[in-house]
Write a structure and sequence with these properties.
Length: 292
């Protein structure tokens, strides 16, 4: 197995209970707007929630994130209640002669055991997510992803045509015409079939980059001289956007990632077209993987 070092997109805690916020948004904005509230494949203005997950890994991370938020909310409310009780009931006026009690065995056992139980409750789903991430299933398609300063290139293996192309930022009129979001659209997209296990092998040609796709639930470092590997199985067709997530220099913000998830037939059609469009003479990339 490759040295897959997958990093989860930092589960930024934007609000207590993103789902609650999303539900509130449903009420306020109506269902049509709420359907977009989480953002599918791209962020949206006033987004409260994580982007909608489209892979198993992303779904597990998403659910784990919300579980953590609820646990955190409970802990915060409990501590707040204790603080309020102390301030209200045990202030100097109401309680002029404080108790001199220093030990209470039951209480000490409880405040040791309860946090341990909370951590165990967090650890179990956490390790479950880790197991899914590192499960390394057999790939239906492998794509080599290479980070450059400042664009990405993609190599498809011989069995689907053996071609390589660059994906540069779409700017100006081209971006407007494409209808794709600003600073997230690329001139060529990585295209993969839906419901197929896609493995990417990620490296860099110059400096360190990081291939990150929020709705797929992972980011993976692109390190010169090293091959990192991760897998995903997108369960919904669509266009998904990500960005380089390792500060790599002047145009770090201008090397977005676009992945198109399409049906099997559309993928066949695309590879047939890509083979001539991105013609190459050396037969395509070679892939090293224990599972192939
Ligand atoms: Cu970068």
């Amino acid at each position: 197995m490759g040295m897959a070092r997958a990093q989860i997109r930092p589960a930024t805690v934007r609000s207590f209970g993103g789902r609650a916020a999303a539900l509130a948004a449903t009420g306020l904005l109506g269902s049509a707007a709420a359907a977009e509230a989480a953002g599918t494949g791209q962020p949206v203005p006033w987004q409260m929630d994580l982007q909608r997950p489209v892979t198993e890994v992303a779904t597990e991370i998403y659910n784990f994130h919300h579980l953590l938020n609820w646990i955190m909310l409970a802990v915060v409310l409990f501590v707040l209640a204790l603080l309020i009780a102390v301030v209200v009931k045990f202030n100097e006026k109401k309680n002029p002669t404080p108790s001199r009690t220093t030990h209470n065995t039951m209480l000490e056992v409880a405040w040791t055991i309860v946090p341990v139980l909370i951590l165990v409750a967090i650890a179990i789903p956490s390790f479950r997510v880790l197991r899914t991430q590192l499960s390394d299933p057999k790939a239906d398609l492998m794509v080599k992803v290479i980070g450059h300063a400042w664009y990405w290139s993609y190599e498809y293996p011989e069995d689907v045509g053996g071609f390589k192309f660059d994906a540069n930022l779409l700017e100006g009129d081209d971006q407007v015409k494409s209808g794709q979001p600003k600073l997230l659209a690329t001139d060529n997209e990585m295209v993969v079939p839906v419901n197929k296990i896609v493995k990417i092998q990620v490296t860099a040609a110059d400096v360190m980059h990081s291939w990150a796709m929020p709705s797929f639930g992972f980011k993976i470092d692109a390190v010169p001289g090293r091959l990192n590997q991760f897998w995903f199985k997108a369960d919904r067709e669509g266009t998904y956007h990500g960005q380089c997530s390792e500060l790599c220099g002047q145009r770090h913000a201008y090397m977005p990632i676009t992945v198109k998830v399409v049906s099997d037939q559309a993928f066949q059609a695309w590879t047939a077209e890509a083979k001539t469009k991105f013609a190459r003479t050396d037969g395509g990339a070679k892939f090293a993987d224990a599972n192939r």
